[in-house]
Structures are given as structure tokens and as C-alpha cells.
Design goal:
205 residues; mainly alpha; two-stranded antiparallel ribbon; 3% strand
């Protein structure tokens, strides 16, 4: 009975610490993001891509694409500014645990099994900017597909930082019916290489 009581108290304590750690991360990220319209621009792009792809009139479809290209550029600029600003946050606050389960303050206790989200945001900023400039000269449809993947992978990183990889992946599946691996496969090769080098270099040994 004493063991069960002790185990219950430990579990409650761990949950409280985890909630406090996650709350701090949510506030930190939210404080920086609220200065921008990144989420709203993402919604506009996602809806716009669907509208353009479903438009039968070629002239009207091209008008929609032209408007979306301007939105892509605005989003790329805003996220680059955000990433530059967030890079000033102390590293002690920006480590992300790669452990399979969410443990309170795991990134601080096991820094070798963590990565710096500031570097991840820098990778995402370059990927989004390249997609907006269409440096790979993709077709309009492929450009929209790649930009969507870049944005959703960035969103996955935000959720991973605030909660855990498992929660981030579950949310991505629920909202977009897309797995984390599918996103990694769909982004531009340069993004994929830099992203995997960052997170795989931080896997638990």
C-alpha cells in the first residue's frame, strides 16, 4: 500500500513538472509568434491552394496563383524575421527532447538526447524561403505541394517544442492526415538533409 501511495505521488509530481515545463515552452513560443501573422498566412495559403487546384477556368486559376505567390513571399519574410529573433533566446530554453516519451525537463537533464529548436527554425526558414522563390523551378502544382510540406513540417516542430514529438505527430495526422515521415519525404532535399542531420544527430544513444 505504501508503495502504491509513493508511486501515485511520484506520478502526480512528474505530471505537474511536465505541465509546468510545457506551459513555459508554450508561453515562450507564443510570445514571439504573436507579433506575426504566420498562422493566418498559412491558413490563407492552404485554403488558396485548394481553391486554385479546384478552379476550372484557367484565367481565374492563374489569378489565384498570382495572389498566392505574394502571400508566400510575405509568409517567408515573416518567418525569417521570427527565426532571426528567436535565435536570440538563450539555448537553455530552446532544447527539444528526442526521447520517445515526454519527461519533465528531459532536454536539460539529457542534453545529448535533444536538439536546438532555434537551428530547426533556421532550417525551416530557408526551406520556406526557397519554396517561395521557387529556386528549384517546380511547376505551380509541385511548388504548392512543396510549400505545404515545408509549412507543415515547421508546424510539427512548433508542436514538438511545446509538447512532444508524439503529440506533434498525432496532431499532424488529425489535422492533415499526414505522418511525420511523409512530411520529411515531401520537403525539398536541402531541407530534408539539414533537418535530419539536426534531429538524428540528437537521437538517444
Amino acid at each position: 500500500m505504501d508503495f502504491l501511495l509513493l508511486a501515485t505521488m511520484v506520478a502526480i509530481g512528474a505530471y505537474g513538472l511536465k505541465a509546468r515545463d510545457q506551459g513555459r515552452r508554450i508561453i515562450l513560443l507564443g510570445t514571439h509568434l504573436r507579433q506575426y501573422q504566420i498562422e493566418k498566412l498559412m491558413e490563407n495559403l492552404t485554403e488558396g491552394y485548394l481553391r486554385a487546384l479546384g478552379e476550372d477556368d484557367p484565367e481565374r486559376r492563374q489569378q489565384i496563383w498570382n495572389l498566392l505567390h505574394a502571400t508566400e513571399g510575405s509568409l517567408a519574410n515573416q518567418f525569417q524575421t521570427f527565426a532571426t529573433e528567436f535565435a536570440r533566446v538563450d539555448e537553455s530554453q530552446t532544447r527539444v527532447s528526442t526521447l520517445p516519451v515526454a519527461l519533465p525537463y528531459a532536454a536539460r537533464l539529457l542534453p545529448a538526447a535533444s536538439f536546438d529548436v532555434r537551428k530547426a527554425f533556421s532550417v525551416h526558414a530557408r526551406g520556406i524561403a526557397d519554396a517561395a522563390r521557387n529556386t528549384e523551378q517546380r511547376s505551380t502544382r509541385d511548388r504548392a505541394f512543396t510549400m505545404s510540406a515545408e509549412l507543415f513540417l515547421m508546424q510539427h516542430t512548433c508542436h514538438w517544442f511545446c509538447r512532444s514529438k508524439a503529440v506533434a505527430s498525432a496532431r499532424m495526422m488529425a489535422r492533415h492526415q499526414t505522418t511525420h515521415q511523409q512530411l520529411v519525404d515531401a520537403v525539398a532535399p536541402d531541407t530534408r538533409r539539414a533537418y535530419l542531420a539536426l534531429i538524428e544527430g540528437a537521437k538517444p544513444r
